[in-house]
Design goal:
- The chain has two domains: 1-30; 38-111, OB fold (Dihydrolipoamide Acetyltransferase, E2P), CATH 2.40.50.140.
- Strands 1-2-3-5-4 form a five-stranded mixed β-barrel.
- It is an alpha+beta fold.
- It is built from one helix and five strands; from the N terminus they run αβββββ.
- The protein is elongated, with a radius of gyration of 22 Å.
- The chain has one helix at residues 3-25; strands at residues 44-56, 61-66, 70-75, 87-97, 100-111.
Length: 112
Amino acid sequence: MQENTLLKIALICSIIGLISIFLLSKNLTFDQTNLITKDELDQTIKVKGVINRITNYEKNTIIEITRTEKLDIVLFENNINLKPGEKITATGQLKQYKGNFELLADEIKVIN
């Protein structure tokens, strides 16, 4: 094939792709009901998410979960039986630490 023909095909495919993305994006909605806001600081909330990472420290454990956004859950015990990839619900008080939200968990349950 000639270079000119390949260039035309690539340009047509790019334009079709951009138009498709534009049309599909109009139908997408973003659910903001699960977003955590500053209005919830110092209140007891319940969150649901999937464990990404668990970090054990001397006096506490930090569990990073993914939901609509990333959230660290602080648990003041080290003897936990959780694994990355598990779905959990956590209940506790929402705090802000170094500009990020974190949940000081009172209760964590594994869900199916």
